[in-house]
Amino acid sequence: PCRSVLTVACEQTEVLLFDPISSKHIKTLSEAHEDCVNNIRFLDNRLFATCSDDTTIALWDLRKLNTKVCTLHGHTSWVKNIEYDTNTRLLVTSGFDGNVIIWDTNRCTEDGCPHKKFFHTRFLMRMRLTPDCSKMLISTSSGYLLILHDLDLNKSLDVGSYPILRARRTTSSSDITSGSSGPRAVGSPCHQSDAGPLSEKHLSRSSQREGGSPRNSLEVLTPEVPGERDRGNCITSLQLHPKGWATLLRCSSNTDDQEWTCVYEFQEGAPVRPVSPRCSLRLTHCIEEANVGRGYIKELCFSPDGRMISSPHGFGIRLLGFDAHCSELVDCLPKEASPLKEIRSLYSHNDVVLTTKFSPTHCQIASGCLSGRVSLYQPKF
């Protein structure tokens, strides 16, 4: 949020800080964690959080980087995602233990923050909040996309305590269980759960508000992916449009021989009954990726205005648009799924690019590759 610092999460316990304008290295947090650092999220102009394969989350203050503000313990496996609700100041994390955990930063001390387990699902890969925090989206390595509607982060969810809104192309919800399980490897076959599928009998009447949709109602989707109708797929990366209009997925086939970037428009409107079929997402745009660096997750992103997508592509990145003029998504919604348009390709790495990010304020894009190189671009159009 301060727009003046580029933070880089590294594989070997480090966090790097740069001035994105001058490219000057500011500081290295050499032992930020005891294992790989996976994600960084700023909470305000000075506080930021990091998460790691060491199962912890750390809070940092830009004004005092010699020591952590505190370390948060609660996950039992690699922590992969950090989200933040600025209105409630609740920190939301997810990991390969299948848990989504809520941390109350309003009551943070040097010993940590009060926390609670909010949700659990098997094979969890990524978790995101929409910009208005009205929905939580969770992707899984077994090809499911879970959407919690009318989100209430103050209410813990146990299996059976939320209404299920079944959707088209959802053949089973058997990977949502109350038991813990490690993640399935990217590209490996989908394992079936020993637990039976959730059913409508689990609908909690107390969670439904009078005259409205129930809070934290769960929708289970298997998003349509081109070429994957007869095969499973793994949703490896999940991002949201900055205006909340759409979700952006990077999907790979279970055989790991195809990789796609897909955009899905949110279709609003509650079902007639709490358990009636619905499908909140519609595939609008897609493009096949190079599938270089099989087995590695590639993190893509929207531009701050939502008109472009930056996507790792081999040893560089591709800038993609909904049309050749970089129009708004709402101005070029097709009746059927259309190809994303390649606006520009940028290559400067000597290894597979795994992540990319737009500057929130400048015409600047950062990318990072497997060998640890970080590149900054200032493309001209």
From TrEMBL:
Pfam families: WD40. Keywords: Repeat, Ubl conjugation pathway, WD repeat. WD repeats lie at residues 30-63, 72-104. One of its GO terms (cellular component) is Cul4-RING E3 ubiquitin ligase complex. The keyword Repeat applies. Residues 205-216 have a biased composition (Polar residues). Pathway: Protein modification; protein ubiquitination. It comes from the Eukaryota. Residues 170-182 have a biased composition (Low complexity). InterPro entries: DCA10, WD40/YVTN_repeat-like_dom_sf, WD40_repeat_dom_sf, WD40_rpt. Residues 170-228 are annotated as: Disordered. Belongs to the WD repeat DCAF10 family. May function as a substrate receptor for CUL4-DDB1 E3 ubiquitin-protein ligase complex. This is DDB1- and CUL4-associated factor 10. It comes from Rhynochetos jubatus. The gene is Dcaf10.
